[in-house]
Amino acid sequence: MMRWTGALLALAMGVMLASCSGTGDQVNDVVRSLPVIGANDLTAHAVRSIKTVHIHRVAVMPLIDYPDVTEPNSIQEGAAQALTAQIYSRMQLAGGWEIVPEDDVIQALQRMPPTTRANLDQNALALARELSVDGIVYGTVHKYEDRIGYSYAASRPASVAFTLFFADLTNRQILWRAQFAKTQASLSQNAFNIVNWLHHEGRWVRAVDISTEGVDEAVQNLHSHLNLTGGTKFFPVPNELHPEPK
Known about the structure:
There is one protein chain. The chain is α/β, with parallel strands linked by helices. The chain has a domain at about 40-185 and about 205-230: ABC-type transport auxiliary lipoprotein component (Rossmann fold, 3-Layer(aba) Sandwich). It is about 35% helix and about 25% strand. It has 7 helices and 13 strands. The strands form 4 sheets. Strands 2, 4, 5, 6, 7, 10 and 11 form a 7-stranded mixed β-sheet that branches. The protein has a two-stranded antiparallel sheet with strand order 1-12. A two-stranded parallel ribbon has the order 3-13. α3 (about 80-95) crosses α7 (about 205-225). The N and C termini lie far apart (about 45 Å).
């Protein structure tokens, strides 16, 4: 494994030097296509009053599809359900809050009108009131495309984008928002992100790998902002392997 990592690092450094010296065109196509996942793809904002809200019981509302108008077919079937399941899993692992069982959420939603982008905030608050929770996590999926091809030879990279919100029932206010957007890039497109490239050993990952990373970062960020009434230690888990549209 050390020899493999060393070889990858040497290859990556070669691409960097070629790019910086203006001889990048001489790098062969195999090296150019080596994949890497970029960093800092989560943008989160929290209002100043978020720490004054005491949170114990939290619900997760199923995400809904909200594709960009320029890419109406960019969300594969089942993406919203998959992301919602990942959020449940990460929030349960995080600890410090009580997560409402998924069955209770589904039963409550059956008594409400279908959720759309137009009534998303309204339905989220209504669901929070129905379940008697302190806060609720909900959101939209903007893009979820799997790679086309194989782990070492893909013609299209995986791409994931979603937005999450956290609203508290007491103030009926959105206290936190996180936007995640990531498309895996080749090493030649992002030669300076060697660490992530080495972590995935030059593989083209699946959409589930990218969404796992995004959900983990988002839940950790939310967890760190809240004033939790239970334990507040976050336990990160390893990876399993757009901003809001106008």
